[in-house]
Amino acid sequence: MARKFLYGIVGLIVLATAATFAFRFWGIELLRQAMVPSANVVQLSPPGDYSKADLWLARPDKPGNPALWTPAGFTPAENPPAAVFFIHPTSFLDRSAWNAPLNDATANSRAELFLRGQASAFNGAGLVWAPRYRQATFGAFLTSKQQAQQALDFAYRDVAAAFDQFLKEAGNRPIILAGHSQGALHLTRLLAERVAGTPLAKRIVAAYVVGWPVSITADLPRLGLPACAGPDESGCILSWQSFSDPADPSLILDTFDQTNGFTGLPRKGTPMVCTNPLTGKPNDSAGAEANLGGLLPSKDLTSAVLSKNLVPARCEGRGFLMIGTTPPDLGPYVLPGNNYHVFDYSLFWANIRADAERRLKAFSK
Q1: What are the strands, taking DSSP E only, across 59-203?
Q2: Which among 319, 298, 296 is positioned nearest to 307, based on CA atoms?
Q3: What is the C-alpha separation between 349 and 297, in angstroms, rounded?
């Protein structure tokens, strides 16, 4: 399993380096030319039947479930009490189409690798479901073309259909929602459209909206749950975006500040939700000694280990999570502006695991 996890690191490398090298050497305009599809969006058929196992990357009855991976010293819980709905980040890089086919072997393989390094953090608290979905391609996040939003709408339609089936199969279990990057974007829409103002909101242990900005004033009031105010609170939202010093988040803010939030208000200049994953507290600071362990491969890429005291974390500015000036050497896998987006989960894996279990215990009380 360790070797399989290392393939996940390779998958992360592919995604990160594609963006990093293109940006550094060619600039954003050439990056758009290289990654944004030129064709029109193809009208997709309705979502498939998510009662079928083959439309899921992870579910409790799936052999070889990638979300059950754990580093040495950890094991998945047997029949844990909660149900986890996890939405994976972008794993489709092809510019020949706006949306990934469900049978795209490369995209599915990368997505499984993401589950090993991200969704696995929740297998101590709950049974994990993670759907395949016709995700928008990477280039959709580099343009304001109408086709990009259409592609995201198609992707969300699959996610929503999978979520409906998940609710049927989860029974009356408490629910943990989680996602990263594109997955976190779709999660915010699920919160706004399927959770807010419904009885389902009372079943949510926590929602981990990681690697995607959430405006406190323009988004949060419509998401149906408050931002987590402390480490022992349930029924709340956690969110963070990781950078090292000195950070340049302009690539995120330039796009974010041009949009309106779920409330209809402008996001420009607004503060964002920032939960410190080391402490579970908002707008908090903690030293590396509070880091219970992050996932790192060995230098020769023959094993993967959990490294304690890996990085500190502090929320600052409009709500970015800073991990200090001397983070581990992750080579070219860091995005422009010292953006550790690719590692939002892995740098804090053990803390996220403990956080989910703690909030589940609080929910049960």
Answers
A1: 82-87, 126-131, 175-180
A2: 296
A3: 13
Q: Tell which phi-psi region holds residue 39, choosing left (phi > 0), alpha (psi between -120 and 50) or beta.
A: beta
Distances in whole angstroms, Cα of residue 49 to Cα of each of 21, 24, 107, 132, 155: 39, 42, 20, 11, 15
DSSP state of 228: P
117, burial (CB in 10 Å: exposed 0-12, middle 13-18, buried 19+)? buried
The rounded distance, in Å, linking the Cα atoms of 216 and 237 is 11
Helices (H), 226-271: 250-256
Q: What is the DSSP letter of 41?
A: P
DSSP output for 230-241: STT--SEEE---
Which residues, other chains included, contact 263 with Cβ-Cβ below 8 Å and sequence gap of 6+?
Answer: 217, 218, 219, 221, 222
b (16+ CB within 10 A) / e for 224-240: bbebbeebebbbbbbbb
41-88, pLDDT tens digit by residue?
Answer: 778 888 999 999 999 999 999 999 999 999 999 999 999 999 999 999
Which tens digit of pLDDT belongs to each residue from 204-252? Answer: 999 999 999 999 999 999 999 999 999 999 999 999 999 999 999 988 8
Query: Which residues touch 344 (CB under 8 Å, ≥6 apart)?
Result: 180, 210, 211, 240, 241, 242
Cis peptide bond upstream of 37, omega within 30? no
Both structure tokens of 73: 């010293």
The first and second tokens of residue 60, run together, are 């409790």
Angle, helices 105-117 vs 2-35, to 10°: value is 120
Q: How far apart are CA 102 and CA 250, in angstroms?
A: 33
Residue 191 near residue 224, CB atoms below 8 Å: yes
From the CB of residue 51, how many other CB atoms can be counted at a distance below 10 Å?
10
What sign for the dihedral angle of Cα 320, 322, 325, 329?
Answer: negative
